[in-house]
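B., you asked whether I could sanity-check this one before it goes into the benchmark set. Here's the sequence:
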Amino acid sequence: MFDKVLIANRGEIALRIQRACREMGIATVAIHSTADENAMHVRLADESVCIGPPPASLSYLNIPAIITACEITGADAVHPGYGFLSENDSFADILLEHKITFIGPEPEHIRIMGDKIQAKRTAIDLGIPVVPGSEGGVEDPVEALRIAKDIGFPVLIKAASGGGGRGMKVARDESELAEALSTASTEAKSAFGDGTVYLEKYLDKPRHIEIQVLSDGNGNAVHLGERDCSLQRRHQKVWEEAFSPALNAVQREEIGSIVANAIAEMGYSGVGTVEFLYENGEFYFIEMNTRLQVEHPVTEAITGLDLVQEQIRVASGARLTQKQSDITFEGHAIECRINAENARTFVPSPGRITALHPPGGLGVRVDSAIYQGYSIPPYYDSLIGKLIVYGKNRTECLMRLRRTLGEYVIEGVDTTIPLFQDLVGHPDILNGDYDIHWLENYLAAH
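And here's what the prediction gave me:
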């Protein structure tokens, strides 16, 4: 087991990893920019190292500074959290060269799944169902039209690298295809340094279903059920729940087994999430995230497993102690991402928190690193907390969520709490009747 873990992240996820390490008796090192010198993850770590000024490119993405921090503190492992360098294969390679363990998969698997075209080919080879589309990158509008006619309009043009909705355009008919292809490629080049795009069949009303997996790299892998992440704005998840209101136990076990077997065959090590679009009873592979997900707490709630501790154990060389038959699913969990943004305009709202009262009670978890008097810096993602609520069934969970949102007080900055207060009472949400377009349609109408 590791003696000391450097956490190459900030905010709530840095604090989450810190807690897992402390329960395992592992010392922690917090890195931070000058803007985060008073952050909670810095205040609670065993050691901290300032690695640069506020811009992420000069601090949290500064690989030489992070390696130096490891050497100064004697950290023998690095946990990247999510975002920043968590899916950077070069960072994982450099750590290995310095004999520092990267708490995540092998760099090769990060590379494969980081390229969406290669990821799709790999999924096909492993027997995972995929969305019909081009076999590789497409540049020529004539070739794009041939493929589009073959799979049928509308089609989705997607960047081979990156994510978050950038480099993604819909062409609903032949007249829109050439412009969508050019625009998507230009966006992808600007955002990711790679203008390669590919085509997929556009599904009209799919749900976004993801399967959480855990594997030890020695052919042992289990799935931990699904999460429904269909409530999204601009391709960014807002509300996640487990289980999905759209699936039953048979479907869950069927797709979960397919994914777990594929991950075992890959020789994958650590936690990962295989994401699908789901429509009319069919699953279509989108991508695989080779890291811890923001929404991992809902899986922890229904399985009782600590995914961060499992990551650390596997990275240290331990084999899985669980078989699929050992994994039990109980209850229902929902996570709301609380952002420092205006709930209507979604304009970021950095600033000082003048009052804070997080909710509590049975089945309530708040993952956050803010505190009263803390000043939210303007340089980073606006996520300031996650409210996770658990109940013995979905109805109880929704009632508990309604109660906790009414208790949650954050003053001094705008937050998205009012949005969730609206959503938790909407008939479609209560009935579980929503898809990936539902939230944007709802926001446009309100």
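One thing to flag: Residues 207-445 form a domain with the D-amino Acid Aminotransferase; Chain A, domain 1 fold (CATH 3.30.470.20). Otherwise nothing jumped out at me.
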